[in-house]
Amino acid sequence: MKIKSLMTLGLMAASMAVATNDADACSRIVYQGNDSLYIVGRSLDWKTPIPTNLYVYPRGMAKMGNNTPDAVRWTSKYGAIYAVGYDGGVTEGMNEKGLVVNGLFCKGTIYVNDSTMNRPPMSLAMFVAWMLDMNATTPEVVEVLRKHDFNISGATFDGGTVSTLHWGITDAEGRTAVVEFDHGNIKIYEGHDLIALTNDPTFPQMQAINDYWMKVGGANMLPGTVKSPDRFVRGYYFDTHVDKTGDAALGFSIIRSILMNVSVPYLYEVETEPNVSSTQWRSFANLRDKLYYFDIVTNMGAYYVDLKKCNFEKGAPVMKLDTSVNTSAVGEANSLLRPSAPFTPMY
Length: 347
Description:
alpha+beta, Penicillin V Acylase, Chain A, nine-stranded antiparallel sheet, seven-stranded mixed sheet, 24 strands, 31% strand, globular
């Protein structure tokens, strides 16, 4: 009787997941260890290659939200490392204060409405950089975003896919926010318990699905597909049931293993669903020790940049780690950074 009940519950939850019409595959998990150890792990998945390089930017650089005269403008308060896709847009990053911002695909996103159209434009290519450049903590980012004195602009990529995203933000004290755009209105969810983020549906709906599965009990049954709700549930369950440690190396191993569990096998794809495809890389941001790990699935191992050893002084050169020529790197990779021109935002 118990087995039959569990099967029924599983089928009901599967129906809920299918109803979300999910076709996206990125995952973000926050490991909350001991001794103020917080490590944010994320995966990036897509059908076609998204070449991604690492850039280290110093403080004091003047930047623009896009290349129009009325764009948002700022001068960076903090240095940061960015993961830059196509050498044209910041996917995610961490700044010198231990603030991390990750952008993940979310099909239901609508950035603009009639009331936002005349606000200063902010390109998606620079949105993450702006948050990292100007804020030290999650509450600071949230305060700025709630003002919403900008208008998100973007473009298509990979043959016409619309760049619809939502974001996870975590600071060195473990405070997390999830940011979504609903028909031009910013929706922000805050709390230390927001440890998982994937893709569709929107975050409140995802939490409802996860609550359902937690009542089923992960030791009894966990959803196993690559769909967004299933990855959310698995990531959340394992993240809340692994040991806690204050050891950075052990914490990295724990969160890395969780991200592997929610990753998509290499060269796997679903026809007509380009977003449910291979995990291309994973990143891990140790917010306490200011270490940013990068793990490309076709490489032999992971490497990291120690932000404490980076030169973030005003006037310091922009530095770049070209991931395409450092395929055998393992361990600390600061020595692989080379002076570089700033990347050119794609829009």
